[in-house]
Amino acid sequence: MKKLFVILLVAILSLSLVACGGTKQENQGANAGQGKTEAITLVVGATAVPHAEILEKIKPTLEKEGVKLDVKVFQDYVQPNIQLSEGQLDANFFQHVPYLESFTKERNITNLVNIAKVHVEPMGIYSKKVKNLNEVPQGAKVSIPNDPSNMGRSLVLLQKAGLIKLKDGVGIKGTVSDIVENQKNLEIVPLDAAMLPRSLEDVTLSVINTNYALQAKLNPVKDSLFIEDKDSPYANVLVVRKGDENKEAIQKLVKALNSEEVRKFIEEKYNGAVVPAF
């Protein structure tokens, strides 16, 4: 009787082990079947306004596509390109093509390429000391961006506003030395672009990039004394390293930035201060 009991006990234990083993295998199979593909993270460098705001807007859309967006905000125009070139970023979004071309040529950077136009930020002339350009006094100080492409752009804008005249043919490549007429003897003061809004306390006029104007709570449409036409060729672009253009995650980012969702966001949030370029 005792022997029979032992045999039955061994049989029961064996069946239990088999059952447990079967359950574990089934659970592993189920877990494997239910496993989700890990999201790909893209680190994108951007200036705060409007670039980072636009990127924040599309984060939920990209997450649904399996792309996690890590937005790294910069306060300057130098580090985003350097860090992208060195592989610390996957993309950047803060600049127009003339600036990209000028910067990469000056620094001998050959591995960056723009892959999508997103928006245009019309550059404007601002003042806290005069209410219109006719009030600008003789010898007034005018601050402008000191990087080559935006310097030329700002000088062209001052020319269109009737304040100076540039040497024929220089266009956006012009420098202060290319000014051939300056009837009010304006003192042109080149500064880092990020410093321009703060310079308004010390100068009569400042020619400010829209991203920094918006960041300083200036409304380009209402507060500027003179502003670029909305057909400005200075579209802000998404930039990546050469060879990454066709990566799936990058293409999803391009699609999101050129979507109707972003078009509507730009038009409603910035009221003409920023204009879609797609």
Automatic annotation (TrEMBL):
Q: What is this protein called?
A: Lipoprotein
Q: Which Gene3D superfamilies match?
A: Periplasmic binding protein-like II (3.40.190.10)
Its signal peptide is 1-19
What GO CC terms are in its UniProt record? membrane
InterPro entries, from UniProt? Answer: Lipoprotein_NlpA
Keywords from the named record: Lipoprotein, Membrane, Palmitate, Signal
Q: Which family does it belong to?
A: Belongs to the nlpA lipoprotein family.
Source organism, top-level taxon:
Bacteria
Q: Where in the cell is it found?
A: Membrane
Which residues carry the S-diacylglycerol cysteine lipidation?
C20
Annotated membrane topology is:
Lipid-anchor
Pfam families noted in UniProt: Lipoprotein_9 (PF03180)
